Amino acid sequence: MTDTKKDILPEPIVVDCTGGEDDDLLxxxxxxxxxxxxxxxxxxxxxxxxxxxxLLVAATKPPVGRIVALNCLMDQLVLSDEAGxxxxxxxxxxxxxxxxxxxxxxxxxxxxxxxxxxxLYRCGPAEVLKEVILTESVNAVxxxxxxxxxxxxxxxxxxxxxxxxxxxxxxxxxDDQHSHQITYLHCHDGIRVEDRxxxxxxxHLAVGTTGSARPDSDxxxxxxxxxxxxxxxxxxxxxxxxRGQEGFEDLYTPGWFQADLTMGxxxxxxxxxxxxxxxxxxxxxxRKRRRxxxxxxxVGSDSDVTTRRLASACDVFIVSRGGxxxxxxxxxxxxxxxxxxxxxxxxxxxxxxxxxxxxxxEDALGVLRTFATAVDEGMIPNCFDDYGAGAHFNSxxxxxxxxxAADRYVRVTGDExxxxxxxxxxxxxxxxxxxxxxxxxxxxxADGLLVGGDSRTQLTWMDAKVAGEPVTPRWGKCVExxxxxxxxxxxxxxxxxxxxxxxxxxxxxxxxxxxFEETFxxxxxxxxxxxxNDDGEDASIRPNQIFAVSGPHSLLSPERRxxxxxxxxxxxxxxxxxxxLSPKDPAYCGRYAGSPESRDGAYHQGTVxxxxxxxxxxxxxxxxxxxxxxxxxxxxxxxxxxxxxEAAGVGFISEVFDGDPPHNxxxxxxxxxxxxxxxxxxxxxADGRKSG
Length: 692
Known about the structure:
alpha+beta; CATH 2.70.98; nine-stranded antiparallel β-sheet; eight-stranded antiparallel β-sheet; 29% strand
C-alpha cells in the first residue's frame, strides 16, 4: 500500500443487494451524521424499518431535540421507448402490512458506505447512481441521482414527511382535518412543508439539475412540481415491531417533482429545516473524505482494514453541543445512534478511542471542557436531556471516569496546562464532594471505600429498571466504582502541585487500597465480589471486576490479578465482548429481544457488551506483560469484529449482542464506546503498548 491520501482510506464496504428479496438486507443499516448530531439512516435497500430511520433526522438543539423531518423519497426512473410508451422503474422500497409497494429492491445492485451513502441501480438498459450526504453545520440533506449508462429519461421524486419527534410516530388526522395539520406552500425556489399544530417548524424542499445544466436558478426551469397532497397510511416498521413497539405510521406527501435525467447531468433534491440551503455536493463529499483521511492517518496506513474502518467510524460521534458559534468550542459525544444523546459515562470512556487514538486532540479537549463546565455539586452529568432542558446527575461513576479521561488526555498530548488551568479545580471539587458526601448518598466510608445509593437507585452503568424496580441492584460498595475511586485518587495525587495536598490524596488512596482486597476478594470463586452492602456480598460473576486489573494502578496481587482475568475469560468472554453475567447464574438471560421489558430484563443479566473488550484485552495484556503471544491472542479475540462491521450497522459496531450463540447484535447499530474501545483494544494488541 502506498502512502497517498487516497490509498490510506480503508476500502468502502460494498453490500451486494442483487438478492432483492433477502430479509437479511433489511437488517443491514447505514448511517451518516453531521457535526450537529443530525443524521440520515435506513436499510441498505432503502426501506425504513424503524421510526428512527429518515433521510433527515434534524438536531434542533444540537445534538438533541431531534425530529424526523424527511422520512423517505419515492423515486422512479421513467424511460421512454421508440413507440412512445413508458417504462417505470422503482428505486424506492416501502413496506406495508403484507406487501412492499413500491418495491425497487429488484433494481438495486449494491450499496456502498463512505463519505456519502451510495446506491447503484440497474433499470433495464440504464444504470443510476444515488448518493446521500448531510451538510456539516446545517440541518440539511442532499440526495443526488446520476445516470451512469443507458438512455436518458425522467426522474420522479415524491417526498414523504412527518415532522415529528424522533421517538414518536405520526398518525394522519381525521379526514375533515387533513388540511389543518400538515400542508405545503409554494416558494420561488421549491416548496415548504409545514405542520401547523406542532412546534417542529417547516421543511424546505428544492429540486434542481446539475452538470450539463448550470446549478443556478435557470436549472430549476428543468424541474416541474406536480401538486398532489396525500396521506399514505400504515407504513410498517418491522424492527420496531420486533422490539415490542408500535410499528405503523402515516406519512404526508405534498406531491411529486419531475426532472430530466440525462448523461452528463444529475438531479438533486435538497431538504433543509426551515430555510433554503445551497449545497455543493462534491465539495461536501471532499471535506468529509479529507476528515476521514486524517482519522485513518492517525492510526497508520499499515493498520489492518478494520482498524482503519473503525477510525473512520469515529467521525459520527464527536459533535457540537449548542450549535451556532458553539460548534467550534463546545464538543460532546453522542453515545449511540439512533436514539441516545450525550452521556457522561459513555463520553469519558469513549474519549480515548474516539479522540486520542484518532488524533482529534482539540475535539477531545472540547469534550472534556463541555462536561467540566457542567459540573454541579462535585458531579458531572450522567446525561443531558433529550430536549435540551438541562442535565441529570444520577451516576456515581461518570465523575470518576472524567478524572481518568482527563489524565489520559494529558498523558497522550502532553498538555499539562490544561490540567493546571481547566481540570485541576474540577477534579478537586469531585474528590472533595465524594469524600464528604454527594447526591444519592455517595460518600467515602471509614475504610476509605466509596459507597452510594440504595436498593431502589441505579447509579452504575448497569442501570436498567422494569416497572420502576432495578433489574440489577448494585448499591453500597461496587467493585468497579472503588477501582475507579482508587484510580482517581492516585491520579489526583500524582498531578497535584502542592506537596501537602498531594500527601493527603495519597493517604486517601492508600486507605482505599488497604480495604479493597479484604472487602471484595471472594476466595471460593477466585475473583471479586460484584458489590458489598447491608444485604451482604454479591458473588455474581460479572465483568465489573476487570477494572481492578486493567487500570494503571492495580489493587491486587499478581496472582489474584491473573485469577480475576481467568475467571472473566472462562465465564464471560464471547467473540463480541463480555457477558454481563455468567451463564451458570440462575438469573442469566441469554437473549436480548422482545418487548422493552424483556430487553431491559436482559440488558445487564447476560447480554454481551463490546465496549468491555477494551478493559478485558488491556487486563489480559498486562498480566502477560504485553508479550507477543498475548498480543496474538488478543488479535484473535478481536477478529470477529472484522465480519460484524460489515453487518448490522454497516461500518460500525452495535451496542450489544445476545449472550447465547450465535450472539446476534441488538440495541443501537452504532455505539460510541463499542467503536472506541474495540479500536483502542486493536491498537493495544498491534502496538504492544500501554494505553494513555
